[in-house]
What does this fold into?
Amino acid sequence: MASKARVGVLGASGYTGAELVRLLLRHPRVEITLLTAERSAGKAMRDVFPQFSPFDLPKLVTVDGLDWVGALLDVAFCALPHGTTQTVIKGLLAAAPSTRVVDLSADFRLHDTAAYAKWYGHEHLAPELQSEAVYGLIETHRREIRHAKLVANPGCYTTCAQLPLVPLIKANAIELDEIVIDAKSGMTGAGRAAKEAMLFSEVSEGFNAYGVGHHRHMAELDQEFSLAAGREVVVSFTPHLVPMNRGILSTIYVRGGRGRTAQNLHEILIEAYAKEPFVHVLPFGETPHTRHVRGSNMTFIGVAKDRREGRAILVSALDNLVKGASGQAIQNMNLIMGWPETTGLEQVALFP
Amino acid sequence: MASKARVGVLGASGYTGAELVRLLLRHPRVEITLLTAERSAGKAMRDVFPQFSPFDLPKLVTVDGLDWVGALLDVAFCALPHGTTQTVIKGLLAAAPSTRVVDLSADFRLHDTAAYAKWYGHEHLAPELQSEAVYGLIETHRREIRHAKLVANPGCYTTCAQLPLVPLIKANAIELDEIVIDAKSGMTGAGRAAKEAMLFSEVSEGFNAYGVGHHRHMAELDQEFSLAAGREVVVSFTPHLVPMNRGILSTIYVRGGRGRTAQNLHEILIEAYAKEPFVHVLPFGETPHTRHVRGSNMTFIGVAKDRREGRAILVSALDNLVKGASGQAIQNMNLIMGWPETTGLEQVALFP
Amino acid sequence: MASKARVGVLGASGYTGAELVRLLLRHPRVEITLLTAERSAGKAMRDVFPQFSPFDLPKLVTVDGLDWVGALLDVAFCALPHGTTQTVIKGLLAAAPSTRVVDLSADFRLHDTAAYAKWYGHEHLAPELQSEAVYGLIETHRREIRHAKLVANPGCYTTCAQLPLVPLIKANAIELDEIVIDAKSGMTGAGRAAKEAMLFSEVSEGFNAYGVGHHRHMAELDQEFSLAAGREVVVSFTPHLVPMNRGILSTIYVRGGRGRTAQNLHEILIEAYAKEPFVHVLPFGETPHTRHVRGSNMTFIGVAKDRREGRAILVSALDNLVKGASGQAIQNMNLIMGWPETTGLEQVALFP
Amino acid sequence: MASKARVGVLGASGYTGAELVRLLLRHPRVEITLLTAERSAGKAMRDVFPQFSPFDLPKLVTVDGLDWVGALLDVAFCALPHGTTQTVIKGLLAAAPSTRVVDLSADFRLHDTAAYAKWYGHEHLAPELQSEAVYGLIETHRREIRHAKLVANPGCYTTCAQLPLVPLIKANAIELDEIVIDAKSGMTGAGRAAKEAMLFSEVSEGFNAYGVGHHRHMAELDQEFSLAAGREVVVSFTPHLVPMNRGILSTIYVRGGRGRTAQNLHEILIEAYAKEPFVHVLPFGETPHTRHVRGSNMTFIGVAKDRREGRAILVSALDNLVKGASGQAIQNMNLIMGWPETTGLEQVALFP
It folds into this structure.
């Protein structure tokens, strides 16, 4: 085999950064040559994530003023906070245009700069890149991603909602104005920043909704669902926090269009995902648990009949740090590098 | 003050039984004179629930062949399994007709014996009592309960769904055919029977839906919503299990009827519950956490605007063992005994 | 009954503050007339702890520049951070000498100002008060506390370790140089400050020791054990964090002195606590769970035989926020106010 | 590469069985050709562990009457309950003597049949095999294991205690009569049998010791520590249950022998494990978290100075299902099959 590809993780001290390192350490085609972190610059990776203590990894450095040319990165994973991301990637691609970038932030997911400005409250700082970025939901956009220079890795909530819904919307199989998505996420989705509301004692032994009626992920759903439908689609979406570390489960209420039954919807999904390595549709009537995909890149989807005539309930589950973030990012890397998509992502779910 | 009322807890070795004992030990108007348990008969209560070790309580006895006359119970709380309940209460009321019964099982909640037979798979064993039983959701049926001999204490899921919805249905304020209830419960709702699926390692660090499309609680919702509406109402309802001990949270998606906005719905609920001691409607736009009612008899309700025009999202939260079971049962006892409804139920939520 | 005593909670936005409010709201002899919080000054208590939403409570104010005379407090509970405490209490007692103070911080627990300086790294700011403060472990120092103006409420770890050990040390029943205390605490013991290490995702599904070999609580143990023994006693003590909100469990390894068996040690404890309302010694061989004291002011103690001849294992459990902090503080208030010690503290443990 | 080795998992419906399947599915040298389960015989593996739904695995069959010759197993992992194991392995090795067996039960760990009878209450059913079985703690017994036909895979608690202690005992570096092991385990250690005490609601939000003074694992510790010391060693050992799925942490209190300091003990361990792939000694003074080894085959060991002169505190952590059971079993298979020991065990810890 030729020499390994050189990859960097920008923002390695957060949870998606650590998850990238966990997976990349066992990816046979890459070596990790760069790790950045701002407040922890100068430290070893083991100081911020002791599980890496037995491994030999580059020291954390600050992203400011990095010599992108000298870094010689084949692929850069960008797991930086919103905002910072735009500036960093702009600089990186200007200096080292042959580096491929997979961005895990929300910064390049919206094609429409007006939508971006509306939801994020300021003008986009790299609008020329935004138009060039490819939205990285592989099961939907595989062809465009293959040649992308900059991939906008999808959000965890939105991946979990799109995988069951997009094939149904494309098939014109459900009523577009009656979609309700009730989503539940583990706590790693909230990131590693120290906030009172995320303390163990605030979270454990409790459950709550948040951002009711106005969560930012909606913009991404609007874009992709409308694209799939060929018309504007607006869904109800409510996120909740579950006292667990990993996992997202979406319970989705739909009405079949033009006489479609729940079974029909199930058949469409079975067919759509027959060859996908990381989407598994359960037998009709079975619904997934988040624990059955924990630590793996897999998405499980179930379809059941609602007792209200003509309606169905879809349930999808994935690990927000893997298929919802770092695993999907590596899948994107594999795709743009021309490697088998499953490389380095074969880990089986950890349960119990 | 006169002597204390004599109360018994039938089925004291389960979670609702223990919760009754917890609350009754501090209720100023009662003394616990009888505790039953089948497999643990002969043991002390401390052997099945060591937290009662410091307290003086009657020994557990079997309910079979109990001398109901000699027991001289003013009130019997029945926390027995489904099925058994019908036979036991029939015997108790036949022998000791002056004893008031608050039943925490599902056995007497459905007025319609045909509905009962359909959902539970067999004929009701005490149909004459079923017609006499009063459905014990106090905020809705206070007047009938006051004179009841047998109160059918509502289910935990259904209490959590009815409290936000019944006033809106009665006010004809929402579209009856578009109600979606996405409910999430802590694990004590599953009871204390040893089942593999309820083991810690099966539950922790995970989340799942269950009984999708066909949960038994639906019969109770159908009955009460249809009663409130004056026509048949069928809702979508999906229960989920949260890795926590206590708490139910319902996220409810509704469409305002005849131009009603989310704010209008909020006003209706504020007014409906202005004087209720155990239902608290949060300011518009705020939604509750289960942790904020843990261990208390309180239900918190929030109302927020959906971004889809004309729609609202209701969120309600209660402790399934208190307002969802034993606390509500004691509230029912207080009501039928003519005591202030809040007696013995003043405990403030335990958070964190 | 005469009018209620006026009590204030200084530092109401932390966990021990909230726990004080939870208990004081149901204490029949007091009314809460003052609540302070620094960063949250100006807010309602419900904004920092939504469980209090249904209750009428004073608005949070800053402690700086408070008019202590006008406040007319009978009792002030001080739940402020280390350091601040000394200055605030000094000012309070200077301005309003008739106010009794129960301090929940570590600031006044050490009689020896040199020990204080060594462990905390700076001189004590109110040494004259330190000498006057009474150490508030009621079961050991009841007599002195009764007349105290300033009570230093013990730490949670140290309460849990002292209750089983002090009677044995006083009885000269164990080898003083072979005591090992392995302590495990729930996360509320770490307080509400937003720190990365206390985030849910850092804590859940894991277990660890911390401060191995050099935890500050040791100074308090040294003082009290040496006092009980009449000579210097130094123990091994290792604290651990358990992924739960409440509870401390100490597993204590001792060797019986002069032929004492584990049974002998058990008898000494049974006798020592025969009349204590909040210490319960289990039958020989049984050991407690933290869950069996959750939310209550109770401490459970068990004694078992070690298989190594002549040795015993003691296990003690309490709720760190109740008997380990706010409950014990209220018990101290009851004592100094001449009320029955159990007033307002009768709540039974919440399990499950 | 030659054809893959054929391996079977006897007892595949328990947690160690599932963990074996998780790891073996990604082991490059084996294929799973046999899975047994008693109550679930006839089902697919996905019916008892839905995470395996996407994989092609043999159907579960009962172990009774299996044709061991026809099964053509190169390696059999035995994850059956205590007792059954002896009979099954006896039959297997009689019929198919070329099959190598790695047994995960406790049945063949004790060389002394008298010790076995004492701790387990009955005579051993295959004493001739017991004498032949090799105790499978690789770091201690690598040489003997290489040629074993039957490996008795060590227990999880005992692996976690032996790895830090055996090198110190062998080096005669600690006082043998003052060892205290305080061990804490996640709940998967209790297995998958449905027991009330293991229900989520009994376990969550609580902590407790169990088997205080008389846990069966002690026999295994006695044997190995005495072997290492060349004299009888009896330690204090107390197991506890932590509300988490995976992980064991042992806090071990020792006194250095003949003037050894904590630093000396650390040096001995550093040297002992310098070349071991799955034991990692942290820098002096650092102690491990269970979360940092979750899902991996790694053991982390820390050494810190106790404040009591001449004493040290050792802390070790491993994943009870991996290094404490199935991972170590695969490491044993690798060893007896002559493959690199780390094959199939390279997975990095899953944190958060």
In short: Residues 157-320 of chain C form a domain with the Dihydrodipicolinate Reductase; domain 2 fold (CATH 3.30.360.10). Residues 259 and 289 of chain C are 29 Å apart (CA to CA). Chain C touches chain A at residues 15, 186-188, 190, 192-196, 198-205, 243-245 (CB under 8 Å). The mean pLDDT of chain C is 96.
